[in-house]
Design a protein that fits this description.
transmembrane; elongated; transmembrane helix; mainly alpha
């Protein structure tokens, strides 16, 4: 008979995968909104009319780089990076959510790997673009990564990962019963 502890592990993994998948989207969305807030704050303080009236600044700009222009390029690059980061997080999260929804363990490993990279990228963002929101997101993403990875290891230890298909196919014989037969 299909053991109850394996059913519980299957259910636990599904909850963890769904939670982790949606958390990845929330993390990336929070980072993106934090960056947009910084972007708006920067542009609110930047006054192009005042720069046009500043004659000394125009003379200086003939012989040097324009810091405000460099800052604009820097912000545009970061904005594109955050958009790609957000799309990447949705893709990584979708793999995990799909594996839980279809009860197919095939997408769990790549999903965990992609979210590991997501956490690593988040940590890089903390050093590049240091703010409280990015610190909280990085810590939270690593915390959730540990939860999902430990759940997956426990799931694999109990030889239950192959038995996920039992929920979809009532005729599927679990591995422990196949060995006994």
């Amino acid at each position: 008979m299909f053991r109850l502890d394996k059913c519980c592990l299957v259910f636990e993994l599904e909850i963890a995968i769904c939670f982790f998948g949606f958390t990845g989207i929330v993390i990336s969305a929070t980072l993106f909104l934090a960056f947009v807030a910084v972007l708006f704050k920067t542009y609110m303080e930047w006054d192009p009319i005042e720069q046009m009236l500043d004659k000394d600044r125009i003379e200086r700009e003939k012989h040097s780089f324009d810091p405000s222009l460099m800052q604009q390029h820097h912000l545009i690059i970061f904005l594109l990076f955050y958009i790609l980061f957000f799309l990447y997080a949705i893709f990584a999260s979708a793999l995990l959510i799909r594996s839980a929804y279809t009860k197919n363990p095939r997408h769990v490993k790549p999903g965990i790997f992609l979210h590991g990279m997501l956490s690593f990228i988040t940590l890089i963002i903390v050093f590049i673009h240091f703010n409280p929101a990015s610190i909280v997101c990085a810590v939270f993403s690593f915390y959730v990564l540990i939860i999902i990875f430990s759940t997956y290891l426990k799931f694999k230890e109990n030889n239950a990962i192959e038995n996920v298909r039992f929920h979809c196919n009532p005729n599927f014989i679990p591995i422990d019963l196949q060995e006994k037969a």
